Amino acid sequence: MKITIVYDNKIVKDIKGLKAGWGFSCFIQTKEKNILFDTGWDGDILISNMKLLGINPKDIDLIVISHSHWDHCGGLARLLNLNRDLKVYIPTSFSKHLKKEIKKRTNIFYEVQGLTKICPEVFTTGEIEGSLLIGKTRISIKEQSLIFSTAKGLVIITGCAHSGINKILNSA
Fold it and tell me: Which SUPFAM superfamilies does its entry note (predicted)?
């Protein structure tokens, strides 16, 4: 398994032209599939960084979106405009409007609620309840993480981990 950070708030790889942006995205290559986890906020930055890192959008087999915050799914539409054949896995808690927009752009779309196998040795935790404190108000957020079963044990990749790392690890 190889994990490449494609999009993040800071750039740590010295590649000319690589851009930082609000959000997160990583490209995971397994023996069976190429998976993009989250898409960052800006689709143009996502596509530009992918090109600089040698990642062709046509080589992605499936996308898993952790949760509906724009810094994790904002680049999805731009990517789907380049490759309509991507399988997209989102939490069922996404808004009806966002689901409608995704369905316009892809042929294969899955809503995930519980633990789900998405390909050999790769699972999503399904929705895990979390929250975010905004001012004095606590907002409920449902988020999914990825679980990879490897010879050395489990590898867990999270988005923001609004539900907390302990809760995510216990669900894996």
Answer: Metallo-hydrolase/oxidoreductase
